[in-house]
Amino acid sequence: APVMAIVGTPNVGKSTLFNRIVGQRLAIVEDRPGITRDRIYASTEWRSRSFRVIDTGGLELGQVDAIATRIRAQVELAIDEAEVIVFVVDGVVGLTSADEEIANLLRRSGKPVIVAVNKLDRAERNALAYDFYGLGFDKTIGISAEHALGIGDLLDAVFDYFPPASTDLDQIDEDAIKVAVIGRPNVGKSSLINAILGEDRVLVSEVAGTTRDAIDTAFTMDETRFVLIDTAGMRKRGKVYEATEKYSVLRALRAIERCDVAVLVIDADSGIIEQDKRVVGYALDAGKAIVVAVNKWDAIEKNGKTAQEFEKMIRSHFPFLSWAPIVFVSAKTRQRVRRVLEIAAEAAENHAQRIATSTVNTIVQEAVAMVPPPTDKGKRLKILYATQVAVKPPTFAIFVNRAEMMHFSYERYLENKLRESFGFLGTPMRILIRERN
Ligand code: GDP
């Protein structure tokens, strides 16, 4: 799908615009401390066309760069990654010298640039945006990200610069299971991908070149079709992938956004570090199915309990991943490489699973009969009914008389009951509590 990037100086409203375009995502009920909620990459739709949005300003990697360096990095990312660039400026403050600098960088890119003059809350938005026409970009549109004004016009303008829809890989290979192999550098991602594609029964059917240097590899194993997302630099020892940290984070995020299942590769030899948690946090936030592959299993000394001990260690580092299957692999000896794919296929199936409302209600009613809902001041929470409202990941709405009476622990109990019944191995689940009188 095509990519639109949002660039601009601090405080012009980039993130507000991003959220406005991407829309309110389903509330994540589960609280997972230490996991970032900020997303800089998201998929959305306009006029039935999927596209992806990057909020380059949200790309905060923790280093204390000068603002100028950060902005330059943003613009470079946008230029590399996007089909269309939306350059956000502040319509109240007016044109600043920092805007001019960004404009210079953008002009040299040759990419289509649309100027979004933000914070114009009145009807005569486009007239107020007049100051910015002088920048000479393809289009200038007055908007208010906060009040949702002019957003449709902006997206229409963006849309005009998207390439024809038929070139989207996402649309060509809809049924294939999209797998992203993720993990910090040197855990063996490239080796694992090469091992997968070198398997006897794996037929690499095509190498679909998408935009720029992102390469997806399509293959079939035992009649199941897979697409490995963004294998650029992984199949050869090129390492385009991890050229710079900011770039690799963005690459990883994009791969995650596009996948069904993320295979998180962990290094058995060096163990789990903070960076592993950050990587998996992105996949969790995006609601993807996750399989943990503990690689370099050949390289460590083992006794009868090693796998068990590893599993325990992993579960304690990733308590929010209790549902994710763990496979011990070696890209080097190819031990259980096929198993990773089998499990990924199963996780993808669960991720897309749809359960009939009557079945969901039977389970929930049984659960309620077994453990009654919480009470407050003598009144008991009533669970009215439940239904699945979305797939990828399976998302359930539970309708109750008073939402504030729902306890986290009771919600968790219901989630566990649903999990037990439907076996959502490898997929996260979401529960929304909705009030109904
Ligand atoms: P990436 O950065 O995650 O793509 O990691 P690479 O695939 O480049 O691997 C990093 C290093 O780990 C290389 O030196 C590999 O040869 C080594 N390596 C990868 N997989 C295995 C494995 O299963 N066993 C052993 N012993 N070494 C491995």
Automatic annotation (TrEMBL):
GTP 2 binds at residues 183-190, 230-234, 295-298. GO terms for molecular function: GTP binding; ribosome binding. SMART domains: AAA. GO terms for biological process: ribosome biogenesis. Transmembrane segments: none annotated. InterPro entries: AAA+_ATPase, G_ENGA, GTP-bd, GTPase_Der, KH_dom-like, KH_dom-like_a/b, P-loop_NTPase, Small_GTP-bd. GTP 1 binds at residues 8-15, 55-59, 118-121. It holds the Pfam family KH_dom-like. Residues 2-166, 177-352 form the EngA-type G domain. Keywords: GTP-binding, Nucleotide-binding, Repeat, Ribosome biogenesis. The keyword rRNA processing does not apply. It comes from the Bacteria. PANTHER family: GTPASE DER (PTHR43834). Associates with the 50S ribosomal subunit. HAMAP family: GTPase_Der. GTPase that plays an essential role in the late steps of ribosome biogenesis. Belongs to the TRAFAC class TrmE-Era-EngA-EngB-Septin-like GTPase superfamily. EngA (Der) GTPase family. NCBIfam families: GTPase_EngA, small_GTP. This is GTPase Der. It comes from Sulfoacidibacillus thermotolerans. The lineage of its organism: Bacteria, Bacillati, Bacillota, Bacilli, Bacillales.
